[in-house]
Known about the structure:
Blueprint: E1 10-14, E2 20-24, E3 30-33, E4 36-39, E5 50-53, E6 59-63, H1 67-73, H2 83-92, E7 100-104, H3 110-119, E8 124-129, H4 132-146, E9 157-161, H5 170-176, E10 179-184, H6 193-199, E11 200-210, H7 213-224, E12 228-234, E13 241-244, E14 247-250, E15 260-266
Parallel strand pairs: 7-8, 7-10, 8-9, 10-11
Antiparallel strand pairs: 1-2, 1-6, 3-4, 5-6, 11-15, 12-15, 13-14
Residues 78-81, 104-105, 107-111, 128-131, 134, 163-165, 185-187 line the site of S-adenosyl-L-homocysteine.
Amino acid sequence: MDAEFREGEPVLLVDKKGRHRMITLVAGDVYHLHTGTLPHDDIIGEPEGTTVRTSLGSPLLALRPTLSDYILKMKRGAQVVYPKDIGAILVLADVQPGDRVFESGVGSGALTMALLRAVGPTGRVLGYELRDDFARRASRNIEGWFGAEVGSREVPLRLELRDAYDGIAEEHVEALGALDKVVLDLPEPWQLVKHAELALRPGGGFVAYVPTVGQVARLCEELDGSRFSMVETLEVLHRTWHVKDPSVRPDHRMVAHTGFLTSARLLAPAD
Ligand code: SAH
């Protein structure tokens, strides 16, 4: 996308101190911040990477947010999966264009957006979320990113208000065909192991994100007694660096813990 900023799209504004803000462009609207006001019209029609100035002369760099920027700035219902973990989940599950993916819970929709982007317009994501308020928040977030409605060709997501522990509905699997991947971010992923066995094709991938070791142990126990194999668990440590001559060193602070990722592959049924 090399076009100028258009009305309706999200823009990331970065100030002199490196602080990030995100706004959605609306013609005629004015953004208020402590360093002055900024008419959205000053950004609409400008190319990406433009520096605009507030009424008090403070510079703001305007860029299209990356998916990671968007996820960290969008409104949240449930706690999102951090971009560092999203990257690993996509690789561990080997999510690719055309994949049919089951995901639960949808939460704020962060992981869902990354899945949708990875499966592309020929893929499908089936998402189950327990809470109506979270599902609505997720839909708004997803539509704000893709600029199209959930369920459209650009956003091939079927979002269902359901308890995933009850299983993946047969009618949903019938509509999709056998699933390629199951990706879980909910408290008791072991409750879905049997259901995933039924819905996935042989060779299909399973990835679950859980915050505590007890959950990992319980999940691995369930996977060990199942048709899944190649079970692996890892965590992603993401340490940023301070690089400013002459001081080049790791930053003092980091997000020390988010969650563990457990992945597995489904074997063919024994004869
Ligand atoms: N991955 C999401 C965050 C999910 S938070 C994101 O990146 O934005 C966990 C979500 O699981 C919550 O929204 C919670 O409501 C939902 N959840 C918990 N138990 C569930 C269940 N049994 N079935 C479906 N969703 C469930």
